[in-house]
C-alpha cells in the first residue's frame, strides 16, 4: 500500500497520472468527434460509421479504447519508477520490502491506471453514442487481463534497463499483445495473459535485486 501511494503521489506531482488517464479517456472522443465533424456533420449521437447503429458505433469505439488502454499501460509501467531505477535509488525501497513486492506494486499501479482510463473511456462512449458495447463485460475482462500483462512486461523491461530507448521494444511487444487480447475468443488466452504477467513479475523481481546488488 505504501508503494502504491508513493507511485500515485509521484504521478500527481509530475502530472503523468493525469496525462495517462486523459489520453485513454479522450481517445474515443477524438475518434468519434473527428469522424463526425470531419465530414461536416454536426450530428448527435456521434459515430464512426454513419450507417451503423449507436450500439455498433459504441462497439467499434470500445475496441479502439480497449486497445489504446492496453497499449498505454506498458508505458505507465515503464515510466513510473524509471528515474528511481536509473539512479539506483530504488535500492532504498528494498530495505523495507522484497523485490517481488516492489514489482507487483508497480504492476498493480499501472494496471489500475489502464483500467481506470478504460472506464472513463467507456463513459465517454456512452455519452457520445448514447449506447454501450453489448459485450462490455467480456471487454472489461479483456482489459483487466491485457493491462496486467502489459504492465508486467513494462515492469520487466524497465528493470532490465531504464534507458528510454528500451520503450521501443516494449511498444512492439505491446502491439502484438494488444491484437492478441483483442481477438481472444476464449478464456484460455486471457488466462495465458495473466500467466505471462506472473512470469514477467518474477523475472522483474530478479533483475531488480541484481541491479541493486551491483
Q: Could you please describe the fold and organization of this structure?
A:
This protein is an all-alpha fold and about 210 residues long. It has one domain. The chain is built from 8 helices and no strands. The two termini are about 25 Å apart. About 45% of the residues are buried.
How far apart the termini lie comes to: 27 Å
Classify the oligomer.
single chain
Overall shape: elongated
Radius of gyration: 18 Å
Helical percent range? over 70%
- Summarize the helix and strand pattern as letters: HHHHHHHH
Number of helices: 8
Q: Low-confidence parts lasting 5 or more residues at pLDDT below 50?
A: none
Can you lay out the helices and strands and say which pair or pack?
Layout: H1 2-13, H2 16-38, H3 54-80, H4 82-86, H5 99-129, H6 136-160, H7 166-182, H8 187-213
Helix pairs in contact: 1-5, 2-3, 2-5, 3-5, 3-6, 3-7, 5-6, 5-8, 6-7, 6-8
Give a quick summary of the entry.
This protein is mainly alpha-helical and 214 residues long.
Properties at a glance:
214 residues; single chain; mainly alpha; elongated; 8 helices; 78% helix
Amino acid at each position: 500500500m505504501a508503494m502504491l501511494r508513493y507511485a500515485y503521489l509521484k504521478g500527481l506531482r509530475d502530472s503523468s497520472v493525469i496525462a495517462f488517464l486523459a489520453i485513454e479517456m479522450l481517445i474515443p472522443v477524438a475518434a468519434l468527434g473527428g469522424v463526425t465533424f470531419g465530414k461536416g456533420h454536426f450530428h448527435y449521437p456521434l459515430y464512426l460509421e454513419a450507417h451503423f447503429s449507436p450500439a455498433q458505433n459504441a462497439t467499434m469505439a470500445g475496441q479502439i479504447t480497449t486497445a489504446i488502454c492496453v497499449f498505454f499501460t506498458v508505458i505507465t509501467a515503464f515510466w513510473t519508477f524509471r528515474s528511481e531505477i536509473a539512479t539506483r535509488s530504488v535500492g532504498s525501497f528494498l530495505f523495507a520490502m522484497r523485490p517481488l513486492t516492489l514489482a507487483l506494486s508497480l504492476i498493480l499501479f499501472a494496471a489500475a491506471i489502464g483500467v481506470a482510463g478504460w472506464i472513463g473511456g467507456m463513459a465517454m462512449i456512452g455519452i457520445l453514442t448514447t449506447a454501450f458495447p453489448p459485450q462490455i463485460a467480456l471487454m472489461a475482462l479483456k482489459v483487466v487481463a491485457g493491462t496486467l500483462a502489459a504492465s508486467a512486461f513494462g515492469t520487466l523491461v524497465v528493470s532490465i534497463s531504464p534507458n528510454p530507448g528500451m520503450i521501443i521494444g516494449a511498444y512492439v511487444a505491446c502491439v502484438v499483445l494488444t491484437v492478441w487480447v483483442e481477438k481472444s475468443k476464449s478464456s484460455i488466452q486471457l488466462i495465458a495473459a495473466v500467466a505471462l504477467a506472473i512470469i514477467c513479475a518474477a523475472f522483474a523481481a530478479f533483475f531488480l535485486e541484481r541491479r541493486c546488488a551491483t
